[in-house]
Amino acid sequence: MDDDKKGSMSNRQGPEGNELLPFTVQFLRGRWFQLFASFLIMAGAGATYLFGTYSSEIKTTLGYDQTTINLLGFSKDLGGNIGVLSGLVAEVTPTWFVLLLGAALNFGGYFMIWLAVTEKIPKPKVWQLCIYIIIGANSQNFANTGALVVSVKNFPESRGSLIGLLKGYAGLSGAIVTQIYLAVYGNDSKSLILLIGWLPAAISIVFVYTIRPLRPVKHPYEGRVFHHFLLISIVLAVFLMAIILTEKVITFSKSAYAGVTTVACVLLFAPLFIAIREELLVWKLKKQPIIPPTKTTINTPKGEEDKSKQEAIFDDKSCFLTLCDKPKRGEDYTILQALTSIDMCILFFATFCGLGSSLTAVDNLGQIGESLGYPNKTVTSFVSLVSIWNFLGRVFSGFVSEILIVKYKLPRPLMMAIVLLISCVGYLLVAFPAPGTLYVASIIIGFSFGAQLPLIFAIISELFGLKFFSTLFNCGQMASPLGSYILNVKLTGPLYDREAMKDLTAKGLTRSQVKELTCIGPRCYRLPFIILTSVTFIGALSSLVLVARTRKFYKSDIYKKFKENTDNI
Fold first, then answer.
1. Mean pLDDT of the chain
2. Do 169 and 27 contact (CB within 8 A), yes or no?
3. Of the four, 287, 483, 501, 528, which is 20 to 30 A from 456 by CA?
4. CA geometry: angle at 359 spanning 125 and 239, to 5°?
5. Alpha carbon distance 284, 280 (integer Å)
6. In DSSP terms, which residues pair with 567 in a beta bridge?
7. How far apart are CA 450 and CA 455, in angstroms?
8. Is residue 353 a contact partner of residue 536, using CB atoms and an 8 Å limit?
């Protein structure tokens, strides 16, 4: 075989024997393997979504009433959404330190909860258990900051689709971890708490040096690659949903759960092959001879030079002196500039209404099913359905909003308003239930809950730039625990307990005569969910205000500067 034929075959095939090691090193240090590792980290970073599964175990073992459980749910939301610490840590430390710190917090928090519910330590006070939950839940912010922020900086032109995929895998994690725990531990919700303590921590430690910022590289078919990732993730979601529905009618053995978990893990690792394929394309293109570009002289207009000088001076100013001298939308805002802008205030309020209501609904889903007379196995299916549709909502909002921006120049906040209006339908189905409607409500609530997060994160990155994105996106989601506290702890919990006390009074019992307060009937959650519907509708209206304010910005090419600063392969 002559040299030309050998060269031709080399271009069509993968690296030759002597090239295998260099290619492997390039792959392990490349963007695509970093993205695959981010998928796995996010797939283990959604333990907060399983609170509805193990909260009943805490309630029964420790003898809490619903108000206390809702307080624990608020603590989980507080820890899961107060990510400013992880953002600030990421600004001054390398990514590996962020991931390691998150792994330590994850294991420490959930391990203490497991010790409490298994009665291996004395019964903790409520405030102590709240701290454990806050610590464990806060760890997911370190995973988000480490994996999500780095990925957005590595793939800035596909951020909508990327955020949707990453947050989608986090939404799927509830169903994935549930199948793993059923295969390993059986139907023991106490062991679930232990699993969500060690598994996410182990994943972060394995990929601790893989997740790091890399200079973006122009890829000829980047959008198509993300659609391939989307297809695999949808297959995984459909498979998990099919298993969840099958579990309703068939009792699985432990070996059957082991088989299901094996298939789920194969689908979870399938993006690795796409990552190898794309890195192989990069490898081949780098080996092609490079034709040097014709040298041209670019004369910078005087106005642009002045602007560059102003930006240099602007960076040297104190952050407090630039509060009234904000840059244009899409430029890099300082942290204080972004937090004091009208756009951020509107987005903060919409997040308060939307995510606050969604978190309240998800946290109470187990008790809602119980109050409507559904068996425990069915209630577990509701929680898993929320996880699946949470994923679909995230990838849908990420990809669809990206299409609306690129093709039709429609503002991303418009998608936010639509999602909030859809969630109102789910809340009304809980407030006025009919036989079987809780299945539909679970799907709508899970879908709308998941769809909000990618939109919020993408909007923040687009309006305020990527320079301080680690801190800003964590600041942006701080509204959700505030909304959860008011709507869940101060509203839903007391109203539920009030209805439960009516049941006790009708039976001639007092609070001291029962271990836990339980309300049965559709009236238990009617008033709270009518209020949640109203609050969410107001949030949708505020999103429309942001649409009007940003319409002109989204009509422009919002990714122009990233296209100019991207390396060719």
1. 84
2. no
3. 528
4. 110
5. 6
6. 217
7. 9
8. yes
What are the b/e assignments for 467-493, b being 16+ CB within 10 Å? bbbbbbbbbbbbbbbbbbbbbbbebbb
Kindly report the backbone phi and psi dihedral angles of residue 568, in degrees, each rounded to the nearest multiple of 5, phi listed first: -80, 150
Two tokens at 124?
């903790």
For 489-513, the DSSP string reads IIIIHHHHHHHHHHHHHHTT--GGG
Q: How far is residue 291 from each of residues 288, 379, 430, 538, measured CA to CA in Å?
A: 9, 63, 64, 57
Q: Which residue has the tokens 């590289």?
A: 217
Q: Strand pairing partners for 114? A: none
Torsion of CA 372, 377, 380, 386, to 10 degrees: -70
- Encoding tokens for residue 395? 């990838």
CB atoms inside a 10 Å sphere around CB 314: 16
CA separation (Å) from 372 to 378, 382, 509?
11, 13, 22
pLDDT tens for residues 2-14?
444 444 444 445 6
Of 404, 393, 508, the C-alpha closest to 443 is 393
Residue 565, pLDDT score:
62
pLDDT of residue 291: 54
What sign has the CA pseudo-torsion 438, 439, 445, 448?
negative
What confidence tens digit (pLDDT) does each residue in 34-84 have? 999 999 999 988 788 788 778 888 888 888 877 788 788 888 878 887 888
Tokens, residue 431: 């407030």
Which of 151, 176, 175 lies closest to 163 in space, CA to CA? 151
Residue 142 contacts residue 425 (beta carbons within 8 Å): no
| C-alpha closest to that of 207 among 458, 334, 33 | 33
According to DSSP H, which parts of 342-411 are helical?
Answer: 342-363, 365-371, 376-408
55: tokens are 């909260």
Contact 506, 328 (CB under 8 A): no
DSSP letters for 532-548 = HHHHHHHHHHHHHHHHH
Residues with Cβ within 8 Å of 439's Cβ and at least 6 positions away in sequence, in order, are 382, 385
219: number of Cβ within 10 Å: 21
Name residues of the chain where pLDDT drops below 50.
1-12, 295-314, 316
Q: Are 357 and 483 within 8 A, CB to CB?
A: yes
| Joined tokens for residue 305 | 């030079």
Q: What are the tokens at 15?
A: 């690296």
What CA–CA distance (Å, rounded) separates 515 from 185? 28
Dihedral of alpha carbons 155, 278, 204, 46, sign:
positive
Query: Are the C-beta atoms of 114 and 190 separated by less than 8 Å?
Result: yes
Question: 218 has which bridge partners?
Answer: 568
Q: Rounded distance, CA 472 to CA 341, Å?
A: 12
User: How many Å apart are CA 293 and CA 148, to the nearest integer?
Assistant: 35
Burial 179-195 (b: 16+ CB within 10 A, else e): bbbbbbbeeebbbbbbb
Supply the pLDDT for residue 549. Answer: 95
